[in-house]
Amino acid sequence: MLESLRIVGTQVFILFILIMLGFFGGKKKMISKEGVRSINEIMLYFVTPCVIINAFQREYDPALLHSLLLSILAAVISHVVCYAAGFLFIHDKDEAAKRTKRFAIAYSNCGFMALPLLDAILGSEGVFYGAGYLTIFNILVWSYGQYMIGKGKEGFEIKKAFLNPGVIASIIGFIFFVTSFTLPTLVIEPIKYMSALNTPVPMLIIGYTISSFALKEQLRIKNEIVTLALRLVICPMVLLGILYLIGFRGTLLIASMISASAPVAAISTMFSIKYDGDVRLASKMVAVSSLFSILTMTLIVGFTRYIA
Description:
mainly alpha; Na+/H+ antiporter like fold; 15 helices; 78% helix
């Protein structure tokens, strides 16, 4: 158990150092809000799709396909558990705050925070399973997710659920995988270079987000304790129990838990801005959950690795 915690903790601490670089860059005004917004677009439209496609560049294996489908099942179960928890335990009188908190519980930062950790701990196989989880996340967050936080202002935009970079890259990557199609060197090498940005750049963005709040304000979390507990500890542990009981083990179980135990998805802030939600609360939830996840992810993933 202690060895598992040491291995996971070491990787999380490495990410923490990168987060601190972003934190100091934000405090010293070396990183601006506009710069982060542009970097976020680059991550969304270039880096993350490259990571997914690169993860699927492997020879077709029926056993791997079976495990990929199981990772998708784990993602579905995870989101159902989180949806249920939000509706059961979050009942704020402030409608915007209620929607923001329920969204924060439902959607983890399974791209920016989980993929780097998957790569560091499990390598390309972990990223492969993470891509399955991320596909379900993208479908749900761009359909029911924006409906949830926007209070139905634009309905379920089904087209956006499937026509977004993450899902498109997953479909392309999946086709490459099942056909054992290997991209030529002139194409795959640039994709690998872009994929390499997926570890440091998101950590800088998270660090900048944390720097935008005074420490005193970040620690003032009385009204967010239930939301944070559900997002970072309770829902992941419930999911761990379910997955363990239905037979998940090894790399697949660890990969699923890394994705599920990640902090609040950064996209919650973007949706709050778009739909006149509680932008300040959304930003705070992303920042504070990212900070606390350094401890919670170490413990949960370390424990999962021990029992897997």
